[in-house]
């Protein structure tokens, strides 16, 4: 995507002359550098801070393992989320015969491994379990909610018990999948039933606090992206700092909601502290699609001299550079219901900041743009500082 939003002025809603975002970003940067140095020292001394995500840096890229019964929807999930396959075309996907390893160019460079449903890794001595789970980011177990799930739950229980003994820190994410077409009550009943069956089994074996999380998903709506967002967020070290930056931005610029998106997959990797709702996520994620589509059609065409003259002539009578906030491209759209503009700003080639603004904020666009710019620089520094060395 080549769309960019860049601002030059600062939004000061109180008229106090302060620029809270700039201050908070630099404070955040100092705090981040400090904790990073602290971590480095602790690692040198052979100890680790207990609540940290696993060290994803040294040996390779974090891995997401997709496992579950045959036809539960693993390849469909991977194709829809990471390869933009339209959901209806997953009907034609063939059954996976061997492990599909997919390295995805993204802000985090993770890998997705899609396992064939019929493989039982613990029954098969040819699998090097240590190599497989040694560097894992998360194990995603897909259960088909439209099918009889008892066998899937039983296999999941065996897998968790096997892993808990050797790799107790592996995060297990259960996708109760294909919930489209099921009533809300039925979805919740299934989720409750599966949760109880798994937790009971784990308790019986003495694992009361195993890190197992449940998500209701479908490729036919945004729930699958939402679930992946939550999975990926657990792999980001110091996520709280990113969230604090976005929360500050929302407060300063009176945004309703702000998301930091991985543009290719449309997974959001951070959001502000207001509760995330599906509707705002859907609007922001669809907006990215609109921008990508428009950019693909018009993006690389420079303005002709004639068009430029028309834009710079009456009634504006100003150079284009003075009229827009960005030298490259800018993007802002006003939603017809409630007059809420959406703003999108590219952070780097993988990430974009998308925010829903409040009614009156459109008048203050140049000021908003500057605050957004400051946060974007902060996000860049965050990834620079926390990137595996
Ligand atoms: N209704 C519905 N169908 C889905 C969903 N996700 C996948 N499917 C369908 O489920 C079927 C099986 O999907 P696959 O992705 O091939 O399943 P798999 O788990 O990779 O299967 P194996 O490769 O055999 O292990 C396909 O027909 C998909 O269209 C979903 O969210 N809802």
TrEMBL record:
It catalyses: GTP + H2O = GDP + phosphate + H(+). Signal peptide: none annotated. Residues 21-32 have a biased composition (Polar residues). SUPFAM superfamilies: P-loop containing nucleoside triphosphate hydrolases (SSF52540). Residues 1-64 are annotated as: Disordered. It is found in: Endomembrane system. One of its GO terms (cellular component) is endomembrane system. One of its GO terms (biological process) is cellular response to starvation. GO terms for molecular function: GTP binding; GTPase activity. Component of the GSE complex. This is GTP-binding protein. The lineage of its organism: Eukaryota, Fungi, Dikarya, Ascomycota, Pezizomycotina.
């Amino acid at each position: 995507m080549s769309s960019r939003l860049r601002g030059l002025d600062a939004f000061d809603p109180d008229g106090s002359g302060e620029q809270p975002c700039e201050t908070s970003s630099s404070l955040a940067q100092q705090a981040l550098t400090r904790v990073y140095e602290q971590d480095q020292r602790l690692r040198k001394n052979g100890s680790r801070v207990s609540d940290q995500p696993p060290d994803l840096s040294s040996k390779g890229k974090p891995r997401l393992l997709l496992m579950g019964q045959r036809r539960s929807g693993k390849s469909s999930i991977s194709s829809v989320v990471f390869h933009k396959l339209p959901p209806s075309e997953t009907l034609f996907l063939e059954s996976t015969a061997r492990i599909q390893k997919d390295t995805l160019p993204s802000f985090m460079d993770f890998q997705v491994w899609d396992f064939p449903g019929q493989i039982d890794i613990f029954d098969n001595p040819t699998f090097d379990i240590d190599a497989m789970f040694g560097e894992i980011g998360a194990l995603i177990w897909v259960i088909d909610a439209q099918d009889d799930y008892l066998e899937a739950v039983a296999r999941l229980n065996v897998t968790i018990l096997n892993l808990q003994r050797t790799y107790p820190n592996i995060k297990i994410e259960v996708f109760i999948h294909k919930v489209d077409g099921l009533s809300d009550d039925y979805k919740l009943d299934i989720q409750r039933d599966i949760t109880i069956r798994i937790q009971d089994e784990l308790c019986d074996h003495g694992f009361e606090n195993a890190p197992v999380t449940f998500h209701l998903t479908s490729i036919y709506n945004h729930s699958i992206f939402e679930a992946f967002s939550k999975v990926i967020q657990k792999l980001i070290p110091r996520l709280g700092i990113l969230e604090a930056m976005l929360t500050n931005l929302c407060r300063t610029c009176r945004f309703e909601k702000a998301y930091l998106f991985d543009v290719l997959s449309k997974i959001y990797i951070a959001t502000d502290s207001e509760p995330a709702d599906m509707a705002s996520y859907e609007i922001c994620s669809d907006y990215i699609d609109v921008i990508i589509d428009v950019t693909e059609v018009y993006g690389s065409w420079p303005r002709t001299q004639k068009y430029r003259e028309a834009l710079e002539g009456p009634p504006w009578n100003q150079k284009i550079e003075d009229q827009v906030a960005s030298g490259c491209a800018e993007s802002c759209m006003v939603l017809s219901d409630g007059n809420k503009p959406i703003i999108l700003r590219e952070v780097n080639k993988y990430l974009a900041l998308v925010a829903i603004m409040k009614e009156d904020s459109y008048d203050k666009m140049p000021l908003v743009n500057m605050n957004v710019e400051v946060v974007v620089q902060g996000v860049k520094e965050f990834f620079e500082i926390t990137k595996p060395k």
